[in-house]
Specification:
5-stranded antiparallel sheet
């Protein structure tokens, strides 16, 4: 019986089938959990410095690659040797090499990896390959390899694994290039790129001109509340809810919240999300959707301020989620107010007036925040002014006032005023505002501007979406927000 101390600073002879390898003891124990356990305490192999591998063992070529790596720290990956090295790494439990191999999985070679892990029953390796496929699900689903090399259990696991994601600026718009109607489309812009890319489109075409669509996002899901205007009753009927999963790249119709409301009051309906739920707010409308239970329930009604006094010509811009709560920007006879809704308690705060001068014609105001920016909130207030030139020629002009506060709306302060020749009535009225990565994005039908809050300047980030010679947004942008999308499609 040979004790551990016999092997200090010695070479171990390891026989794999009829091939002998000599490996230094200390690196062997350090790199391989298999040999660390074998050589701990008393080792029952007689008084020899050698080990004869028995039973289910890897190939000789795989052992050669692995022991060379342990001795010299060098490793050259080759797909022709993939089976040998994966089997040896899993058998001898070499965690460092295991990590290196995990990073070698690609969209082209993952079928080779999955065949090897199935053949040698490499549980940990299989889990990592499935995680890779989860990260790239939108790129591999439906392919022949995905259907051929994975069983039902594997495909289910891929769908359920969390995925590597990134935040993207997303715009929801109507594609007017179709001859058979309008179709909502979703495009994204990320990593400071200047080109919009299509993420998906709603699998429904609106052939009527009286469609009504509200949108919001929650984590990596986009929710669309759809309805139509009944001209006979002058009511808007909402009867459909769709959800898009950016990880899976799939649309689904979910349980609808069916209601109808007067045409004038429909302008005040807002769809938003926070604290893991989706909310619908409006005149007499106050419900939440819980994705976990697939149920709609009633919530507390906004207090003190009648809904019909809100300036909601562009309703989606007047509510923003912020750290598990919702902030509403409201207009009253006393000026602009901020009201906070706490979903977890189903309670509303007392309205807090903003401490600055009253803006003339405060149409198309917006409130934006970034959950990752310490509850910093920006309020954007376009102001229309008539301009008289020296030559006594008159024209229109817009200024965009930017107000900021941290936690307390009563402490809001003026930050900047943007006066730019690119702003006009159409631009301001067609703009959606999103705060992300220390910048405020101004997204319209044929432009994307970014306001750097640090540099206090506006830059053109991207131009219009092009499709058949006209903007994909046509003349209607529905909403813009940040959405979690798979990192694999953002590069």
């Amino acid at each position: 019986m040979l004790k551990m101390t016999t092997f200090v600073d010695t070479k171990i002879r390891i026989w794999v089938k009829d091939k002998q390898f000599q490996v230094s003891l200390r690196p062997l124990q350090s790199a391989s959990d298999y040999f660390r356990l074998m050589l701990s305490g008393n080792w029952r192999e007689g008084n020899k410095n050698e080990i004869h591998m028995k039973g289910s063992i890897p190939t000789v070529d795989g052992a050669n690659i692995l022991f060379t790596y342990i001795e010299n720290g060098t490793f050259e990956f080759s797909e022709s040797m993939l089976e040998d090295i994966v089997a040896a790494t899993d058998f001898f439990q070499v965690s460092e090499l295991y990590t290196t191999l995990r990073e070698k999985v690609t969209l082209s070679n993952w079928p080779m990896f999955i065949q090897v892990v199935h053949k040698y029953n490499c549980h940990l390796f299989k889990r990592d390959v499935l995680r890779f496929l989860s990260d790239h699900y939108v790129l591999v689903k439906g392919t022949a390899d995905f259907e051929q090399h994975l069983d039902d259990g594997d495909r289910t696991a891929v769908r359920q694994f969390p995925f590597t994601k990134t935040n993207a600026l997303v715009a929801v718009c109507l594609d007017g290039s179709r001859n058979d109607g309008f179709q909502p489309r979703i495009r994204y812009l990320c990593n400071n790129k200047t080109n919009w890319n299509e993420l998906t489109h709603l699998p429904v075409i609106f052939s009527q001109s009286n469609y009504k669509i509200l949108t919001t996002c929650l984590e990596h899901f986009v929710y669309v509340l759809g309805g139509y205007e009944d001209s006979a009753t002058r009511r808007v009927i909402y009867d459909k809810v769709y959800r898009y999963d950016s990880k899976l790249g799939e649309w689904a119709a979910i349980k609808p919240y069916i209601f109808n409301i007067g045409i004038e009051d429909a302008a005040h309906i807002r769809l938003t999300a926070a604290a893991g739920c989706v909310f619908v707010f409006g005149l007499g409308i106050h419900h939440r959707y819980d994705p976990q239970t697939d149920t709609w329930t009633q919530t507390a009604l906004i207090p003190h301020i009648p809904i019909d006094e809100l300036s909601l010509q562009y309703a989606d811009s007047l509510v923003t989620p912020c750290n598990d709560k919702l902030l509403f920007l409201c207009e009253s006879t006393d000026g602009l107010l901020v009201v906070t809704y706490y979903p977890n308690q189903d309670k509303w705060s007392t309205p807090v007036p903003l401490p600055f001068f009253r803006i003339r014609n405060p149409l198309w105001c917006a409130i934006v925040s970034d959950n990752n920016d310490n509850e910093t909130v920006y309020i954007l207030i376009p102001e229309y002014k008539k301009i008289t030139s020296i030559a006594n020629l008159t024209g229109e002009g817009f200024s965009l006032h930017i107000v900021k506060y941290d936690s307390d709306p009563g402490q809001a302060k003026w930050v900047d005023t943007i006066r730019d020749e690119r702003f006009d009535r159409k631009t301001v009225g067609d703009t959606r505002y999103v705060y992300m990565n220390k910048s405020i994005y101004l997204v319209g039908s044929d432009y994307t501007y970014v306001y750097d809050v640090t540099q206090q300047q506006v830059n053109v980030m991207a131009n219009e979406f092009q499709s058949k010679g006209r903007g994909v947004l046509a003349s209607k942008i529905l909403n813009a927000f940040t959405l979690e999308i798979p990192k694999c499609i953002s590069s």
